[in-house]
Amino acid sequence: MPELRKDPVVGRWVIMATERARRPGNIIDSSYTSPKSDKEHCRYCRLEQDPVYKASLNGGNDWDVCVVPFEKSFLNAQGHCERKKNGLYEVVNGYGLHEIVIETNEHIAGMADLDQNQIKLVIETYAKRIDALAENPDVLYVSAYKNYGSYAGGRSVAHSRSHIIAGPVNSLRFKEKLTGAKEYYDKKKSCVYCDLIAQEYESKDRVVFESQHFLAIVPFAARFLFEVWILPKKHHCHFAQGVEGFEEDLAYVLKGVLRKFQIGLEDPSYNYMLHTAPLYKAKTASVKWQTIEDDFHWHIEVIPRMTLMAGFEKGTEFYINSVPPEHAAEYLREVEI
Questions:
Q1: pLDDT given at position 284
Q2: 3-state DSSP assignment of residue 137
Q3: Domain residues of the chain, as ranges?
Q4: What is the dihedral of CA 117, 118, 121, 122, to 10 degrees?
Q5: What is the pLDDT of residue 283?
Q6: Residue 67: per-residue pLDDT
Q7: Would you call 97 helix, strand, or coil by DSSP?
Q8: Nearest alpha-carbon partner for 13 in 312, 302, 274, 275
Q9: 37-84 residue pLDDT tens
Q10: Is 116 helix (H, G, I), strand (E, B) or coil?
């Protein structure tokens, strides 16, 4: 019997329909999605651009992680943000910054195959660059994301990398999270993510992986097969400040989740997205979200791209999930890494 579940943060309903899993061709063959090795022509091995940031594990290498401007960015870093209105319509020029985080100086395709210390260095790099980009007065939001595999928007170059993007506006998806968290806080005077962590920790039904400081779960109203959220147990709205001192623990959990995907799901394409609070500047003090430090909770969403969305999902944003989150979490828990 199908079941509808409501996301406690944004209020979205998701259809849990196990019969859908039996449809022929509904699951993507991961063997066609993984990046293929091509070291000879890899631009990230050659480092064709001047880095804006470099980090080393022990000082022995010139760099172990480095950051370069994205040469094919859909945003323009020149000039300043300008807004114009014309009746109902509003336009912001395409100002923004887009960087590539090259996660290793070795030709390794997936983050799951990186050493835990290397992943820790990537996390530290995210924090450093987010702080640096936040100094720009035209930037409202900075985040990091990864595309791994062709079905996740990744290119065929098999060199582990991710993106940092900074822009003058929030996305609609993120606004939904912000608004949902604030509405919950206004009613309950508590953080919805903290309450969610407490309930998930108590039931254990949807827990995939855990460390001293982080909890990885399949969310109650997961939109996608084997979708995982990684949440810090300690409340903080901003990633760069909230992760400080816990980078090694987060690296352990992130690697653990990705290894479970790699082994248990046969190395599927996936995306992850870092959600952190917006950057309200002094010039926007009059409209500053007064409770943002209390109501929002930074976290990472990791989404394997194992199914194709059809017209119903795209047209209505009524997602259909064919594996109950409890079953998905149980399966991932049992994957040995």
A1: 53
A2: coil
A3: 3-334
A4: -140
A5: 44
A6: 97
A7: strand
A8: 312
A9: 677 778 888 888 889 999 999 876 789 999 999 887 777 777 787 888
A10: helix
At residue 75, the pLDDT reads: 77
Which stretches of 104-245 are DSSP H helices?
A: 116-134, 172-188, 192-203, 239-242
Residues of the chain with pLDDT under 50: 22-25, 282-283, 286
Q: What is the CA radius of gyration of the chain?
A: 20
Name which CATH class applies to 3-334: alpha beta
Contact 129, 264 (CB under 8 A): no
Decide: 65 and 102 in contact? Cβ < 8 Å: yes
3-state secondary structure of 332: helix
Which candidate, 89, 144, 106, 137, places its Cα nearest to that of 122? Answer: 144
Distance in angstroms (rounded) separating the CA atoms of residues 103 and 64? 7
Q: What is the pLDDT of residue 29?
A: 64
* Cα gap 164→319, rounded to integer Å: 27
| Whether 249 contacts 212, CB under 8 Å | yes
Q: Token digits for 214?
A: 């982080």
Measured CA to CA, the distance from residue 240 to residue 250 in angstroms comes to 13
Whole-prediction pTM: 0.92
Rounded-to-integer distance, Cα 56 and Cα 118, Å = 9
Partners of 90 in beta bridges? 85
Reduced to 3 states, what is the DSSP secondary structure of residue 175? Answer: helix
Tokens of 337: 């890494």
Q: What is the dihedral of CA 269, 206, 224, 17, to 10 degrees?
A: 140
C-alpha–C-alpha distance, residues 12 and 327, integer Å: 21
